[in-house]
Specification:
The chain starts with 55 loop residues before the first strand and ends with a helix. Helices cover 30% and strands 17% of the residues. The chain has a domain of 129 residues: Periplasmic binding protein-like II (D-Maltodextrin-Binding Protein, domain 2, 3-Layer(aba) Sandwich), CATH 3.40.190. A hairpin with a 2-residue loop joins strand 4 and strand 5. The radius of gyration is 20 Å and the shape is globular. It is of the alpha/beta class and 397 residues long. The N terminus is likely disordered.
Length: 397
C-alpha cells in the first residue's frame, strides 16, 4: 500500500511553483476544470512517432501498480524488461524523476504540476496510445493536474475520494457532514483521525467553502493569503480534537481497529481492508478532496518506445482493471467493469463510472501562485506549495 503523502517536515527538496499566467490580465479566465489552464512551462516536444522498442523500461510506481502478474506478460509481448522502483511519497517520486534514471512515473495530482513546471516530464502524443480511447472515463480526461496549455501530460490510471469513515458501533447515526470531524464541540472529540500532509489543507478549504462562503473560496487548491489563514485556523481548531494523524495506511487501519479512532478521513480501500462490517463510510454533503493517478513520461526518457508501449498496455481494460483491483481504486478504463461479475462489483464499490459521485470530489492539485480558480485580477496571487508546507508545520506544532 502506498503512502501518498507530501512532506510533513520542511524538506528542502520540495519544489516551489511560482508560475505566471501566459495570458494578459484582461483576458477571460480559462475553464480550470477541463485542462485549459494556461501557464508558462518548459517547451518540451512530444514524440511524433514510435520506433523500435528498447530492451527495458524503468518505472517509479506506487506499491501494487506494477506487478509480475502483468509486467511479465508485457515483457513477453514487447521485449521490454520492466524495472520497477516503488516509491512511498509524491516527494520521493519527484526527486527520483529528477535523477534522469527513470522513464515513467505513476504521479498523483499533488506531484504532477511540479513535474510539468520543472520540465521533468514531456507532453504525450495520445495518437500513439490506442488504449486511451472512448472507454477511459470522461472525468479522468483533460484535468487541470495533468493537462496544461491544451497538452496532455498524463495517462489516467485510477482515482478515489477521501471519504469520512466511521465506526458504526460508536457513531450510531450516519454522519451527513464533515462537522463531526472539524468542529470543537464534536461528540467524538479526541477520537478523530486526520490525514498527515500539507495537501490536507485543501480538506479544510472544502469545509470552509460550504460553511463560510464569505471567504470566497472557489477552488480548495487556489487560496490567497487570507483564505489560507482561515484554513489554517480551522486546522488548528481540529488539532485539539484529533487523536492522531495518519500517513501510513496500516496505521490508519490499526487506529480504527484498536478503537483509538471512531471517525475521520479515509480511502474506500482502507475501510474495505478492515474486514469488519461495523466500519462504514460516506461522502459528506460538503464534498471532499480526492486523488487521481496518471502515467507520466520523463522529459529525457532513455526508453521512450517501451514507455509508450507500457502506457498503452497498462491502459487496456484487463491490465488497468488488475491495477485498480490490486490497489483498491476506481479504474480509468470503464470497459473493465463489464469483463466479469467480480469486475462489476469492484466498479460499483468504488463508483468507477458514477460521475455524479466524483463531481463532488476535488482532486489533489499542486497549489501554485497563479490562482487556478479563474480570478482575472492582475493582482490576484494565490499561495504556493511551499507556503502550504510551512503552514502545515505551524498547524502540528
Amino acid at each position: 500500500m502506498r503512502n501518498k503523502i507530501l512532506a510533513t517536515t520542511a524538506m528542502a527538496a520540495v519544489a516551489v511553483l511560482t508560475l505566471s499566467a501566459c495570458s494578459g490580465s484582461g483576458e477571460e479566465a480559462p475553464d480550470t476544470g477541463s485542462g485549459e489552464l494556461q501557464i508558462e512551462v518548459p517547451d518540451i516536444p512530444m514524440l511524433d512517432k514510435l520506433g523500435d522498442n528498447e530492451d527495458e523500461v524503468n518505472i517509479i510506481a506506487w506499491s501494487g501498480f506494477v506487478e509480475a502478474d502483468w509486467s511479465d506478460q508485457f515483457t513477453a509481448d514487447t521485449g521490454c524488461t520492466v524495472n520497477r522502483r516503488v516509491a512511498g511519497t509524491s516527494d520521493e517520486m519527484v526527486q527520483l524523476m529528477r535523477t534522469g534514471d527513470y522513464d515513467l512515473v505513476s504521479a498523483s495530482g499533488d506531484a504532477s504540476l511540479r513535474l510539468i513546471a520543472g520540465g521533468d516530464v514531456q507532453p504525450l502524443n495520445l495518437d500513439l496510445i490506442p488504449s486511451f480511447g472512448d472507454d477511459i472515463v470522461a472525468g479522468m480526461k483533460g484535468q487541470i493536474y495533468d493537462t496544461i496549455n491544451g497538452k496532455s501530460y498524463g495517462i489516467p490510471i485510477g482515482r478515489g475520494a477521501n471519504i469520512l469513515q466511521y465506526n458504526s458501533d460508536a457513531v450510531a447515526e450516519e454522519p451527513t457532514s464533515w462537522d463531526v470531524a472539524w468542529e470543537k464541540d464534536s461528540p467524538y472529540a479526541g477520537q478523530v483521525i486526520a490525514y498527515d500532509a500539507p495537501i490536507y489543507i485543501a480538506d479544510a478549504a472544502v469545509y470552509l467553502m460550504a460553511h463560510e462562503p464569505d471567504l470566497g473560496i472557489e477552488n480548495p487548491y487556489a487560496l490567497d493569503e487570507k483564505q489560507l489563514a482561515a484554513a489554517v485556523d480551522l486546522l488548528k481548531q481540529q488539532n485539539e480534537i484529533v487523536s492522531e494523524y495518519w500517513s501510513d495506511p496500516a496505521a490508519q487501519i490499526t487506529s480504527f481497529a484498536g478503537g483509538t479512532t471512531v471517525l475521520g478521513t479515509s480511502w474506500e480501500v482502507l475501510r474495505k481492508l478492515t474486514e469488519d462490517d461495523k466500519f462504514k463510510s460516506v461522502l459528506p454533503e460538503e464534498g471532499s478532496t480526492g486523488w487521481s493517478d496518471a502515467w507520466m513520461l520523463a522529459a529525457e526518457a532513455k526508453n521512450p518506445n517501451c514507455a509508450y508501449a507500457w502506457m498503452d498496455y497498462a491502459s487496456t481494460p484487463e491490465v488497468n482493471g488488475a491495477i485498480a483491483m490490486n490497489f483498491g481504486m476506481a479504474p480509468a478504463n470503464a470497459a473493465f467493469c463489464e469483463t466479469s461479475d467480480e469486475a462489476k462489483a469492484h466498479c460499483e464499490y468504488y463508483n468507477a463510472t458514477n460521475e455524479e459521485y466524483f463531481e463532488k470530489v476535488w482532486f489533489w492539485t499542486t497549489p501554485i501562485e497563479q490562482c487556478i480558480d479563474g480570478r482575472t485580477s492582475e493582482e490576484a496571487t494565490c499561495t504556493n506549495f511551499q507556503q502550504w508546507t510551512d503552514a502545515w508545520l505551524s498547524i502540528k506544532g
